[in-house]
Structure formats: structure tokens, C-alpha cells
Amino acid sequence: MDGFEGPQGYSQRFGLHYVDFEDPDRPRTPKASAYYYSKVIERNGFAETAAKGNMQIYGNKIEITRLPSLPPSEVPSKAKVVWEKFSPQTKFERQLYHYGTFPEGFHWGVSSSAYQVEGGWNADGKGPSVWDTFTQKPGNIPNNDNGDVACDSYNKIDEDLHMLRALKVKTYRFSLSWSRIFPNGYKSSLNQKGVDYYNRLIDGLIANNIAPMVTLYHWDLPQALQDINGWENPEIINIFSEYCDFCYATFGDRVKFWNTFNEPQTIAWSGYGLGQIPPNVKQPGDAPYKVAHNLLKAHAQAYHTYDEKYRASQGGLVSISLNAEWTEPLDVNVPREVVAADRALQFQLGWFAHPIFKNGDYPDAMKWQVGNKSELQGLTDSRLPSFTDQDKAFIQGTADVFCINTYTTKVQKAVAWGLRRLLNWLKEEYGDPEIYITENGVATDTAITVDDTDRIFFLKTYVDEALKAHNLDGVRVKGYIATSLMDSFEWLKGYTVGYGLHYVNFKDSSWPRTPKRSAHLYFEIMRNNGFPLPAEEEMLYGHFQEGFIWNFSLCNFTDLLYAPRACNTLKRKEKMKSYNKIAEDINSLKTLRVNHYRFSISWPRIMPDGTTRKINEAGLNYYHRLVDALLAANIKPQVTLYHWDLPQALQDVGGWENDTIVDRFRDYADVVFNSLGDKVKFWITINEPYNVAMVGHGTAPYIVAHNLIKAHAEAWHVYNDKYRAKHGGIVGITINSDWAEPRNPYKQEDADAALRVVQFQIGWFAHPVFNGDYSDLMKNIIRERSLAAGRPLPEFTPAEVARIKGTHDYFGFNHYTTVLAYNMDYKNLEGAGTVADRTWLDSGSFWLKVTPMGFRKILNFIKEEYGDPPIYITENGVSERGPMNLNDVHRIHYYDNYINQALKAYLLDGVDIRGYAAWTLMDNLEWATGFDEKFGFFYVNRSDPSLPRIPKKSVWNYATIINCNGFISPGESPHECQIHEPEGDIHYL
């Protein structure tokens, strides 16, 4: 044992037994080395060994190395390093999806529990459980639901095995009904038909190569044992041991993974503190602590029973499934909040994990809290019972692996990243154990049958967080069990919600099982052993064609103010003053190596009232100066005639709803072409006409769109007829669209809805311009949905069709994101609703999710739908919010992946992409969101009156892509085309 070690005193310890020198009684506690040494003595030396996790194989004998005794937790525990490591993470770092796989042999499974699925509550001699008693009393469960029949798994072993076999799971976690095996809880009441049922189930699993993971107790105590005070009665420890002993002996030749209890914290606190679940005892002061004390002793006894009698011959694992919700401090920099978060975990998880996995005793945080409150209440002893030294030695180390049930995080809302942090906390707090996630899932309303989108998102995010913990953090995650195999009786919620991967129709007396969409996804996750990087996400190294146009986009309204216009009704704080900062902006463009610059003309700057009655020469002169400066810097201008800033005078007479605006726009275009056309060779008539049209209501969108299309055509003809021959430029229209994927790819109506979304956004304007008229799809839908409401789609005359068709020299395209579409029956334009996948990275804009793969798909759509036109990407970018961080890795990630998808479309798919423009050069006023959304490569410090432009880290990344005309492979780096940021100029936050 530890003793006085000469000059080192008590600072060095050589003993096989720990001696507490701070205790005057000097108690001795055996260390793990004592157990190990006893085995060496028993074997009279060492035999040839083969290690497998905590399991050691000695010839024909299999032993589990006892977990080492760990020191008690500090307050807060040393595991607070998890908060210190993860809490400072940016949203980008938290959300970034991790592609990778688990190691071979990872345990994938699904779960259920006896009372939730078996039914047959009194069949073939089964005795009642506390849950039978509780649920059969009217009013206790919604709709008076109970588990009398549940999923009828007692009679449907074959159906359940069919589901498991189809999923190809490796593990099925289920529980035994104690009262089905021993109707009154005692071995003397043995019910052989109950044993036969479990033998059939286990044999069926083994025959299908599915490993049984058996929970001995999942809340359904035999009522006869509750009648003698259940878990409050210390006698139940030996009674439970007898039950476990029988199960080991009867099923252990095939069952190699045992859990003694499921969520003992829930048993103690919800059952005896809050009184919510059976036995519904509401004595939070002391009953939960007494019950937990007995549960821990019962678990330890069951563990030792297996260890001493069955492990050598059966070679299985024994553990206990604990439960925890990750708790995140509101502010990790405030010590008391970290202490509070740690205490919450210690009370929920440490209550049972600390005795088993650390030192055989309760955590100090818990002892102090309960002890202090007990003292304040005038009690002579703490309400938290004490363990003797023998108890501690008996309990410590009684788990071969760490099993955890977890569902959510205690912070502002349920978030998946809490799972990664919880797993890291277990690693730090409990000596890096092997961890099995034995329950993880999400409930959906039973009105949702097989199309369970929320569960799809849940599985993709939560399993990925477990993968991050394993691959990135070194947490020894060995298995993941999804909750649950099928919809079942959900305790206090009855049948009002379902956790299942399979839908069970409880209104049908045959209780049919139907796989949900989540079952298909989970099958793929298990088959792939995680999330291998999809081929579509792999980087392609290559280059765009020579002469490719690299560009930046900027809208005049976002940085210039001159004359009144419709958009001026938007509230704004200030402006970028680009009107007076041409030289500075040109320098920014030169830094980025762009060869083109897209900007828009302010219609009211040229024509204050929107007509040719007055031409503002000073306004025209500004654009001449800007264009001249660009050309002098070898940067060619791309000019948009209309980017939403309609002169107010025209809006006052109806704006785009007034047919006369077609001629007004033609005249405006004529003036600009005539003035600047000898210098500008790339023209865009209208930017994103879809968004202009959708501002209106009722019939307005159709009328506005009709006039926008005609106005574009007239401007194109003006250029074609009067200026093309001498100026030699090109003219087109810039159309915007998201890509749309079906929310459920197995559902045809969702696939149809996704097509409608794209057809309406792109096709509303592209179809007339490229094909001469609205598409039949659009005509038919609007005729069906809108005619009855008095909102017909305007029609083009044959002459108008002829004049509009072919008014393009290229396809101008703005794109930012992808949506998931689903069918909607109520009347809107597309007859479709859209959502986002939760695995997609957020941005500073609620509507913009980072979804690069959609970019390539929509570029291919344009190629196929509109005759392979030359495409100029005229806007693409991402926003951020919050405090400025010049190290904008989020933007770098976006551009790398989106531009790479465009490169794939060009090189692999043959899409005729001629140019790319990023949105936007600098942070500016983003329409209705003001300055909150920041799309820029340059930060504008608006607190400085001179409004300086400061490059973000993304500047040098984008400059490299431009200078390399694509992407160089890692093997080519370093390369002369790479642009490096100046040293020492910027401190990235």
C-alpha cells in the first residue's frame, strides 16, 4: 500500500492499495493494479495474450481489465477543458460537415424496449409491471393509451426480424420484461413461455447475423416487487441479482453485450423525485437519492455476478446505459456559469458515472450541494447517502464500456453539436473509455407517417457529430444505436409521437410496419459506415479557358446616392461614397487581379425624372470617369442598366405596372448606349427581373414581369439596330434562380415541385427570351391556380413573341443557394414550398445556405433547357453577420467550392461558361437588411469618416483563383500564380 517514501514523503505512491492520508483512519482502497496483480498470481505468471479493447484473452480464458480508479472530480471538473476548446468555435466551425467513416467493426444498431413494443401484457403467464398498472388507469396517458398491445412484437417476431434484416443492422438493442420471465419478480415464479419468447427472438437475431444488445431492466418493474416498495427497498438488490443471474445463464451463450439498467437517473429522479413515471413517488428531498444508491449497488452486484460466474465462458461485456443532455454555459468566460454547467452534468450523469467510472463515490459537486442544503434544512446527515469503503471498491470499475443515451443539448435550442462536446466530456472526465451511444433519436408527430424529414436531418447531423468526435477528437466511439426501430408506445406521450425508423399504423389491428424515409437514409449511413466524401464534393484541379472573364459585381444603389428613386424609401444609415472614391475602388480591383468589373448605372442619376426631358450631364460624366479609370487599369466594364433603383417619378405613375415604362426604359437604354457604348462592350439590361416582379401582389407580378420582358427586348433591339455594328458589344439579361432538389427524392410530387421552382424562377424570363413565350408548364399552372381568382397570365401577341425571341447574346445568371422543394396544395405561383437541409452551412442571410453541388446542376439545366448558350455568372457570393472577423474562412470555403463546381460544369459537362463575377467587392448596404449582412471581400470601416476599405483574408484566396484561372493541385504548390497576402499589414482576428 501507499506509504511514507523517504525524502519524497507522501508525494510518490508505490502501493497496490490507495491510502487516504487526510483521513485519520487511513482507509485502504485497492487500486486497479491490485486486481491485476491478483490475476498474475492466480495464473502463476503470464500466458500468451491477445488484446481486444478492455478484453484480454488468456488461452481459453477471457477477462476484462477493470477500469482504473480515477481521482474524484474537481469543482468544476477538469473536463471543463471541453468548454474551453469548443465554446469559442465560430458558427462555421460548428456547422462545417465532416466527411469520413468510422473504423471497420463499428457497431450500428437500432433499439426498442419491452414495454414499448411487445404488448401481450398478460399473455402466456406474464405478470403485471408498474407500467401496466399505471397506464391502465384512465387519465394517466393521452387518449388513455397503454402498452397492452403496443406493436404486438410478442406475436410478430418474424415481422420485426424482417425489418432488422432489411436494414442490415449489426446490433439490435432490446430489453427483457422482468415480469414476463419472473411474473412476481422472483425466480420461483419462472414463466417458461416468456423465456421461450426471448429465445426465439435471440435465435432469430443470431440467424440473421445481428448481435443482441440486451437491457436487463428498462423501467418495467414487476408490480409484485413494487408492492414491497420497489427500488426503495434494499432487498431488491439481491432479487435483481437473482434475475440477472438467470438471464446470463439462460441467454448468455448468445448474448455478448448486457446493460443492467437503462437511464437509472430517470428511474430515480422522474420516478421518485418528480413522480412523473411509475411508481409516481413525489419525494424529491430524499427518495431519488435512496433509490439511486440501491440502483448502483444492484448494478455492481449484477456486474460482479457476470464477472465471477460467466465472463470466462461467455466472453461478453456488461455496462449500464446512462443518460445526459449536454449543458452549454451561457458564457464560457464567466466562471460561475461554467461551474453551473458542470454541476448540471454531474447531477445528471456523474450521479451514476462517477461511482462506476471514477472512484466508487458520488461527485464532490453533488456531495457538497446536497450536503450543504441538508445542513441548511437542519438535518444531521446529508440526504445523499454515503458509501462505505467496501461499497466504493465494489462499485468502482463495474462497467466494461461507457454507454450513453443522449438526445439534445441544454442551450437556447436543440443542436447537434452538443453531442460532440458531450462525447469529449466523457473522454476527459472518465479516463477515455470506449463509448457506445445506446440511444439517440428524435420524435415526430404521428401525423407524419413515412415522410419524416426532421428525422432525416437529425440523423445526418447527430451521427456526423459522433463522427467528428471519433475522427477529429480521438474519442473512442465504438457504436451508435438509433432510437428506434419502429414507432411504439412512447411512455407519457402514448402514441401521440413516434421515434421509429418504421411507421406503425396503430389504427390497423394488424399493426403493419412501413419503412420511413429515415430508414432508407440510416441504411445508407450504415452501409457506408459514416459519410464518405461524395464524388461531387471532391475538388477538381484544372483551369478555365484562356480569356475567361473574372469579375466583381456591385450595384450602384448599394453604394451611391444621387437623385430620388423608388429604392430610396429603404432605410439606410450611410453610403460607401464610391461616387468620390473611384481611385481607391480601382486599387481594390487591381489587388484582386480581376479583368472585368460589373456595376450598375443609376437611372435617376442620368434622368432624374426617368424620362429624356432632362439628361443630367454630371451624372453621365461620373460614369465616364469610372469607365475611363477602369480601362486605364486594364479592367473592362460590365454595365447593368437597371438594378432595381427605379426613378421615383416613374414609380409615382405606376412603375413597372404601367405599360408606358417599356418605352421609357428603351429611351434610357438608348441614351446610355449612345454615351458609353464606345467604351463598354458588355451590357446587362435588367438584373434579376424575378425579384422585381415578386415585390408586387395580386396580378402585379404577372403584369410587371410582362413589361420587364418587353422592356428588355426593346433595349436589346435598340443596341442591335443602332450600336452593335460600330460598338461591337453584347447585350443580355441577368436571371436569378436557386437550384431545387426534392425534399423527398423518393416522392414524385416533390420532384415535380422542385422542377416547378426552377422553371418559375428561371423560365418565367428565360423561356420568352430564348424561346419566345412563357412555357406551357407555367401557362397551365397559372391557368389552373390563378384564373379563378382573377389573376390570369398576360399573353404575348404573335408580333411580341417574334420581337422577344432571341433577344440575347449570352445567358446572364445570378446564383447563391439551393432549396428543398415539396408540393403544396394551396394557391401560390409555383405550388411548392421550400425548406433547407439542416446539414447545410448557414450564412449571414437566412435564405442563403452553402450548397455548392446545386450550382453545377443548375448550370447543366441551363445548358440543356436553353440550347447551350454562353453563360456569364454575374453574381455569386455569401454573407456573414456579427462582429467583423477579417479571417473570413466561411467566405473562402464558399468560393472555393462554388467556383470549383462551375469548373466541373465547364470541364466535365461541357457547359459554355465564359465568366464569373463574385458578389461583392466590399461590404455595402444590402437592400432591406442594411449593413447587417456583409457580402464583401473588403471590410468598410464605417466608424472612420474616410470609410477605408480593408482586405479580408478571402481577397488573397480569390486573387489566387483568378491569377491561376482555376485551381492548381496540391502537388503544384507553391506555384507562381499563387497570390500571397502582404506580411504584417493585417492582423486577422
What's the arrangement of secondary structure elements?
Layout: E1 17-19, E2 28-30, H1 32-43, E3 49-52, E4 55-58, E5 61-64, H2 81-86, H3 91-95, E6 100-101, E7 107-111, H4 114-117, H5 130-135, H6 157-167, E8 171-175, H7 178-181, H8 192-207, E9 211-217, H9 223-226, H10 236-251, E10 257-262, H11 264-272, H12 287-309, H13 311-314, E11 317-323, E12 326-327, H14 335-359, H15 364-376, H16 389-395, E13 402-405, E14 409-410, H17 417-429, E15 435-439, E16 444-445, H18 453-471, E17 477-482, E18 497-498, E19 502-504, E20 513-515, H19 517-528, E21 530-531, E22 542-543, E23 549-554, H20 556-559, H21 582-592, E24 596-600, H22 603-606, H23 617-632, E25 636-642, H24 648-651, H25 661-676, E26 682-687, H26 689-694, H27 700-722, H28 724-727, E27 730-736, E28 739-742, H29 748-771, H30 776-786, H31 798-804, E29 811-814, E30 818-823, E31 832-835, H32 853-865, E32 871-875, H33 889-907, E33 913-919, E34 938-940, E35 949-951, H34 953-964, E36 966-967
Parallel strand pairs: 7-8, 7-17, 8-9, 9-10, 10-11, 11-13, 12-14, 13-15, 15-17, 23-24, 23-33, 24-25, 25-26, 26-27, 27-29, 28-30, 29-32, 32-33
Antiparallel strand pairs: 1-2, 3-4, 4-5, 6-21, 16-18, 19-20, 22-36, 30-31, 34-35
Helix pairs in contact: 10-12, 11-12, 17-18, 18-19, 25-27, 32-33, 33-34
Subunit structure: Homodimer.
Active site: 439, 875
Keywords: Glycoprotein, Glycosidase, Hydrolase
What does this protein structure show overall?
The protein is an alpha/beta fold. The chain folds into 2 domains: 78-531, Alpha-Beta Barrel (TIM Barrel), CATH 3.20.20.80; 546-972, TIM Barrel. It has an 8-stranded parallel beta barrel with strand order 7-8-9-10-11-13-15-17, surrounded by 5 helices. A hairpin with a 2-residue loop joins β4 and β5 (61-64). α10 packs parallel to α12 and α17 runs parallel beside α18.
